[in-house]
Structure prediction request, 318 residues.
Amino acid sequence: MRDWLTRLPKAELHIHLEGALEPELLFALAQRNGIRLPWADIESLRQAYNYQNLQEFLDLYYLGAQVLRTEQDFYDLTWAYLRKCAEQGVTHTEPFFDPQTHTDRGVPFEVVLAGIQAALADARRQLGISSGLILSFLRHLPEAAAMATLEQALPYRDAFVAVGLDSSEAGFPPRLFERVFARARAEGLPAVAHAGEEGPPAYIWEALELLQVKRIDHGVRAWEDERLIAHLVDNQMPLTVCPLSNVRLKVFSHMGEHTVLDMLDRGLNVSINSDDPAYFGGYVLENFLALQAHLPLTPDQARKLADNSLAAALAPRG
Prediction:
């Protein structure tokens, strides 16, 4: 089934570009930019990928992102991810990037964007992969910082297909960002948001009602609220689920306990995505294979998950 899953056309709608920074590239960029790393070698870094929760992962994620300094760095990061898409049958992708992760340490916004855009354009021409870039706000920082980032991004409005909300979920509900998302909507930018990973179903309701999102990123804790499930089914709200990520971050203790196929069978509009593949052990194909190995995943379910991903795209495909 691996070959069939590889060939199956699919979109990826939940991928953080900074989370696709493989250890080999991380070390290469550190050497290129003269940055001293806290790990002795690649294997030492891989051994650090042992998280007990989302925050432990994020601490490592932000530390690794410090090697990204130049336009070429961001190009190389994005191109490496897009090459992986081509290998795995991903025909369309809508990656997130976190400008605050870079601008707060002195990397100009336009440097980050230029490198990413150049790689996305090359992938359209050379690999046939269509895309739409999503600018994400860091929810552990104040809304004022998100608003400043939005204002900084507006001169490049045509570069983005949506805005998003990510980073530490617990204690940072979507309602804290209602004004910045309203401002983005006024500029014609639709919204997506991480909700219902570590946070409760109430955070999903807030993302829907206050931020007026077009997709929920993660959303697996919707399973705890029957009224919410009914609402999501009735509205066919896309949920971009990331199984390997959920297991690595202890949302589920084992892949065999994951509810994504139950959600699919209940009529929820779920798709399969990789989240931060360099840190969680796999890209989209590996997520499909993990479901096949542990649940198991049927061809009909796989095809429906892939169809859901393509249909939920915000940017034009092809």
Observations:
- The chain is about 50% helix and 15% strand.
- The mean pLDDT is 97.
- Strands lie at 10-12, 90-93, 96-97, 130-131, 133-138, 160-166, 192-195, 215-218, 238-241, 269-272.
